[in-house]
Amino acid sequence: MCLGIPGQIVEVSDSDKKLAIVNVGGVKREINIACVVNEAHPVSSCIGDWVLVHVGFAMSRIDEEEAMKTLQLLTELGEIQAELRAMRESARV
């Protein structure tokens, strides 16, 4: 399964190589944005864009509402996973 994590582009680090800094849940990392730029949407216009990040690449642009919904779902899934893990561990006793 492939999972794209929403992040917001906060800086262009190398426009020639199409590299940018994305903020994903407070963690900043450099990603490749070649898949989300074109003549109508150049590298310089990407700051502030929300993108789905997968293995170091921005795979697509998304709107902020979709990004927030996805982040909320991922948070809830993490909470559910923690609950299931706790239930499994308590069942072993």
Q: In DSSP terms, counting alpha (H) and pi (I) runs of 4 or more, how many helices?
A: 1
Query: How many beta-strand elements?
Result: 5
**Number of self-contained structural domains:** 1
Q: What is the overall shape?
A: elongated
Mean pLDDT: 90
Spans with pLDDT under 50 lasting ≥5 residues?
none
CATH T-level fold name:
SH3 type barrels
CATH domain class name: Mainly Beta
- Tell me the Rg in angstroms: 16 Å
CATH architectural designation: Roll
Structural category:
alpha+beta
The succession of helices and strands, N to C, reads EEEEEH
C-alpha termini separation: 32 Å
Report the major sheet: 5 strands, antiparallel
What does this molecule look like?
The protein has a 5-stranded antiparallel β-sheet with strand order 3-2-1-4-5, covered by helices on one side. It has 1 helix and 5 strands; from the N terminus they run βββββα. The model has no long low-confidence stretch (mean pLDDT 90). The chain has 93 residues and is of the alpha+beta class. Strand 1 (5-14) and strand 2 form a beta hairpin. The protein has a single domain (5-91), classed as SH3 type barrels (Roll).
Features:
35% strand; SH3 type barrels; 5-stranded antiparallel β-sheet; alpha+beta; 93 residues
Write the layout of secondary structure elements.
Blueprint: E1 5-14, E2 19-24, E3 27-32, E4 50-54, E5 57-62, H1 64-91
Antiparallel strand pairs: 1-2, 1-4, 2-3, 4-5
